[in-house]
Amino acid sequence: MNAEYRKDLFADERSDDFDIIGKPVIRQDILGHVTGRSKFYDDHAFDGLLHMRCVRSPHHHARIRSVDSSAAERQGGVVRVLGGRDVPVNTNTLLSLINFGRDDEPLLATDKVGYVGQPILAVVATSVRAAQEAVDAVKVDYEELPHVLDVEEALKPEAPIVNEEYPNNSFDYFDTYDHQKLRFGDVETAFSKADHIVEGEYQMSPIEQAPIETCGAIAAPETNDRITVHTSTQALFFSVGVTAKQLDVSSARLHFIGGTVGGGFGGKVDSHHEPLAALACLATGKPVKYMWDRAEEMQVGGPRGGERWRIKDGVMRDGRIIARAFTGFFDAGAYTRLSSYAVQKSTGHLPGPYSIPNVASNVYCVFTNRTPSTAMRGFGITAVDFAIERHMDKVARAVGMDPIELRILNAYRDGDMKAHRREAKNCALIESCQAVAQKTGWRLSADAARASSKSGGGVGALGVIPETVTDDEGRIGERRRSGLAPEPFSGQGTRGLLPEGHSSNNSSAFGNAPQREDMEAEIERLGFIGAAGVPPTPQGPMDETASSARPIAPSETAHTTHPAGARGGPSLPAAYTQRPASTINQPFAQPPAQAPGTPAAQQPAAAEAESESATTHFQRGVRRPGVSRFISGSRRR
Amino acid sequence: MLEVQTYPTVGEAASAMDDQARFLGGGTLIMNRVNYGDRRFNRIVRTTDASLSEIRVEGDRLEVGAGVTMAAILASRDLDFLSPAARAVGGPAIRNMASVGGNLMAPHPYGDLAVALLALDAVVRMVSGEELSLEDFLARRNGVVRSLLIRRPRGDEFRFRKVSRVKPKGVSVMSMAARLTRSAGRLSGVRVAYGAMASTPVRVRAVESALEGVSLDHAGITAALSAATEGLDPPDDPIASGWYRREVAPVHLRRLLLGEDAR
């Protein structure tokens, strides 16, 4: 099959020197793989290698009354049985390395277990079989506790506490709220003005990464009191950091060797094998392998978390979506791992690639008695994208509109303000829709076929940060006390109002000042020079058109579907006209707030960059001797 | 602990067997269990007895040692009629190790070769010298097999078909074998066997009797197709549901009987 490249699209925004697609490219590691010479962690042989197996919880949720490993310790081949008390720093959370979240997960459970398969003891023996038999011989006395497996059940006041560190069964955001908020405009008022309200609920299941090579690590003593760890990790420095922390040793004593991952897909970042193998190596002075079997990989390995999303749209008769509210639940399982971050990632993605002037979302990182979930390919994005696109189809049905035209009508155009208060750039959804329609013989109206990502963006209310209604609902613990509904603005909390143009974090709406001078963006390296090459000018007061645009007024939130060049014709109503070019470019052309006394020498550089832009418009990559052009290269920045 | 015991003769190996022991043929089933930590056995018994890998030919009677591998079947001119079934087992690495004897022991949905052997009325010769029909052997599945006695089918009377979702190495949705013996232009004494349609490979007597005395064409096999799953309760597994197996069995049976191409 011959690929077809739509090089006509955005031809003026990039140089046409792509020469990789369509040619055979040899993967850099494939020669080793097909000749069987790539060394995976399990290919490293050690004399006297010991093997580790874990005693695991058979219960979703149980208190551990007692553990009796005496029979196991007496069995042949058993070298050592390790428990939580043998781990110097038993409790950790993966993102503690970047100061995000509190330590909540024991390496080996001591007091209670929160999911089926949670490790309690690690048995080190001379063979896998001996370790397995010793695991069979360990007696654990459990007191079963009520468990919760559903995200919304877990948020209810009567739900059992899954994770003692987060007794409300939800991750604490900013030490304030039990969810991640996004507020943009005024969804409640917009809903009241909408012709249709379209609601939908979407549920995605957990997905196991299922690598061919199961997760594992071999830790072996090295000279100079160091430990060599061969590992399947995808995140070598995460694993080093976690191991150093949990073993309370300097990372200088840890020699980690990785790089050959037999399938990762996100499932090899959790860094549980390395600390356990290294701990056993320290305890026995022998090389120790800790490797999951297939059943463990499937049952205990952190999957992509299940997600539930509810979307409520306010839609006008003509298909324009004027408000969208999300309620999202991310099933973290029993411990945080990376789910807290997935929630923020998904929030940054809302409301999808559409210009909607009023957006609100509450997204929860919820603890349940399920296998802790972790990274997997686009986690935090794929599920909500599925929900959004399913919902777009539902909206199309509700208003009786072609689903592709609905997308084109509502798609981001260059210059539109996104809900996370950054201007949309390099939009291409419209062109993608048009190309798909063309390839599949899908008939589009003339307006939809003519629409362009490059025109009609940033018009009126769609180009500015609207006046935004805020609330203080969902403070930590409030939901558990009062049974507050999870949807945005569902309680009687205090409402606030952020003025138009105001970003949520009290900083400049268009980027924080860099902390240090050398962090200043070098415009020629970024490759992006304002759409019309307008020189950076200090941001003046908002122009009248922009500031008078009420975000909730439907008539002002329309994208024109007229092609570039046909903008602002005399017959168009005022609301369809574009803002003058200078105001379009003002926001993102404004240099980050400069400290007084910044050397004026920067000015000529900017001017140079500007003149270059007159011919090439956008630049790809870096142009410095000895530096890869692709350090910051991308098609459209 | 797990112990491996090696004996010079298959007789000694057979007498070392008990509930806690497993006999190692090619290891494609046993080593899998070992790797998964199966603690229901603690001894692996094997033999270096070369006679187990012999193929003896006496006219159209063949004796195939239990240790003969799928690859050896494929390499044998005398066993050419078994090639399609041997080739249906695993990939080259598995076929280099997997043995005829082991295939008789393979749990659902494996054991495609046994399906072919069942349709060929193979006789199982145990190490003890006892001989029993493969059907009887599959019903109890124990003891150590020395060899299989097979009568070479004539002409194109033997048919084998494996249905899998992944080609060429997929696990069976079902496998089917038939020996379509004829008498005076009509089918007579037909054998039909299925794999992955019950806990072991099975003969399908309802189909066999519906084919008795009919001609091998669309009209003739109609009754057999409606009886395709009579008396069977195909299992659900990750490869296919029992319902699906029942629904598609007549289609595949028709293709098998009439020699239609599946694609």
Write the SSE topology.
The complex is a heterodimer of chains A (about 625) and B (about 260).
Chain A (H helix, E strand, L loop, with lengths): L29 H5 L15 E7 L5 E7 L1 H5 L3 E6 L7 E2 L12 E2 L5 E2 L5 E7 L2 H10 L1 E6 L6 H4 L25 E5 L2 H7 L2 E9 L11 E7 L3 E6 L4 H12 L6 E4 L15 H12 L3 E4 L2 H6 L7 E9 L5 E13 L5 H11 L9 E9 L14 H18 L3 H8 L18 H12 L5 H5 L17 E4 L6 H5 L12 E4 L24 H4 L17 H4 L33 H9 L12 H15 L21
Parallel strand pairs in A: 1-14, 12-13, 16-17
Antiparallel strand pairs in A: 1-7, 2-6, 2-8, 3-7, 4-5, 9-17, 10-15, 11-12, 11-14, 15-16, 18-19
Helix pairs in contact in A: 6-7, 11-12
Chain B lengths: L2 E5 L2 H6 L5 E3 L6 H6 L7 E5 L7 E4 L2 E5 L4 H6 L7 H5 L4 H6 L2 H6 L6 H8 L3 E4 L4 E3 H7 L4 E7 L6 E7 L7 E8 L2 E2 L2 E2 L3 E5 L6 E2 L1 H6 L7 H9 L15 H17 L5
Parallel strand pairs in B: 1-3, 2-3
Antiparallel strand pairs in B: 4-5, 5-8, 6-7, 6-8, 9-10, 10-13, 11-12, 13-14
Helix pairs in contact in B: 10-11
Supply the CATH class of the largest domain in chain B.
Alpha Beta
**Residue-averaged pLDDT of chain B:** 95
Measured distance between first and last alpha carbons of chain A: 31 Å
Give the rounded overall mean pLDDT of chain A: 83
Following the backbone from N to C, one meets helices and strands of chain B in this order, namely EHEHEEEHHHHHEEHEEEEEEEHHH
Write down the overall geometry of chain B.
globular
> Order of strands side by side in the largest beta sheet of chain A?
3-7-1-14-11-12-13
Describe the main β-sheet of chain B briefly. 5 strands, antiparallel
Structural class of chain B: alpha+beta
Proportion in β-strands of chain A: 15-25%
CATH names the topology of the domain at 42-145 and 220-291 in chain A as: Aldehyde Oxidoreductase, domain 3
Q: Oligomeric status of the shown chains?
A: heterodimer
